[in-house]
Design brief:
By secondary structure, the chain is an alpha+beta fold. The protein is about 50% helix and about 15% strand. It contains six helices and six strands, in the order ααβααβββαββα. A four-stranded mixed β-sheet has the order 2-1-5-6, sandwiched between helices. Helix 1 packs parallel to helix 3. The chain is globular. The protein starts with a helix and ends with a helix.
Length: about 160
């Protein structure tokens, strides 16, 4: 009886969190073509922000829900970055910045992503634009660190564009 109740509570908790996960995936879509994402970023003279996330990663869900989803709905950020999500365990097709076929898993490995969440910013050629943000860290400062990373990336992109 106790095990059945515990199982039921887990199922209910999972079902209640499904809308939040769906909202996060809609607001920060999975990348399928980084070359197109880079072209979109170039069109706004901005950068590509990639959130590397893992399955069942509560810290990833929190970064998405508390930081990236609200940012993706803010026009100021939409004029700075193209936000994409990459599931590090996925073997789905992904076109890289150079147009070559890869997978999210291979792309994450190629960029040294070992822990999730990891947020990286790239220029339109796929070059990293600074140090990645690894993990969640102190929540009170995470937004500040994220803004610093975005501003630093934009400064580099816009210097190169001149």
């Amino acid at each position: 009886m106790k095990q059945t109740l515990a199982t039921l509570l887990v199922i209910v908790a999972w079902a209640l969190s499904a809308p939040a996960r769906a909202a996060a995936t809609d607001a920060v879509p999975a990348s399928v073509d980084l070359r197109k994402d880079a072209a979109a970023a170039q069109g706004i003279n901005g950068a590509v922000l990639v959130a590397f996330v893992g399955e069942q990663c509560r810290y990833c869900e929190r970064v998405l829900r508390e930081f990236l989803v609200p940012m993706s709905r803010n026009g100021d950020y939409r004029s700075k970055v193209v936000m994409r999500r990459i599931e590090t365990a996925s073997h789905a097709p992904l076109r890289g910045f150079n147009g070559e076929d890869t997978t999210p898993s291979e792309f994450a490995q190629a960029h040294g992503v070992r822990l999730t969440p990891t947020v990286m910013l790239f220029d339109n050629k796929g070059e990293p634009l600074g140090k990645p943000l690894i993990g969640l860290g102190p929540v009170d400062y995470y937004g500040f660190y994220l803004d610093q990373a975005i501003d630093g990336a934009l400064e580099k992109v816009r210097k190169l564009g001149k």
